[in-house]
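We now fix the convention by which a protein and its fold are recorded. The integers have meaning only within a learned vocabulary of local backbone shapes. A complete example follows; check for yourself that the lines match position by position.
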Amino acid sequence: MKSRPEIDRSAELSIGEVAARFDLATHVLRHWETMGLLHPAARVNGRRRYTQDHVVRVAMIMRGKAAGLSLEQLREMLDAPDRAARRTVLERQHAELDRRIAEARASQRMIEHAMECDAADFTQCPTFHRLVAELIGADSASSG
């Protein structure tokens, strides 16, 4: 069994080192500090020094953004006063992800049909029209 690398929790990293780990520009980390997402790093000789806790938080922010959370939602989740408050934020986002996944699957079905359709013009195909109708019905149901 492959062992996991040990994390040196006492190691301090520069803003450039943290940014490089996540392929970010350093100004992004500074902005996240301003937004309250990252707690200000300790300063050594005027330079920010980040800990492994900061690295973990940046990873959480990156995953949250990939899941569609706004910076405000991320701050709300990460700084939630208790488990129940955090769960409320996450439940809302979970429902939003379910909706987005359903939309992506419907779009994928339309694309797959267009790729495989034998009709000279797939937009005139009755099956394609049915897929469009399903998509429109889903959109009007979610917006109404």
In short: The two ends are 52 Å apart (CA to CA). The CA atoms of residues 95 and 101 lie 10 Å apart. The chain has a mean pLDDT of 86.
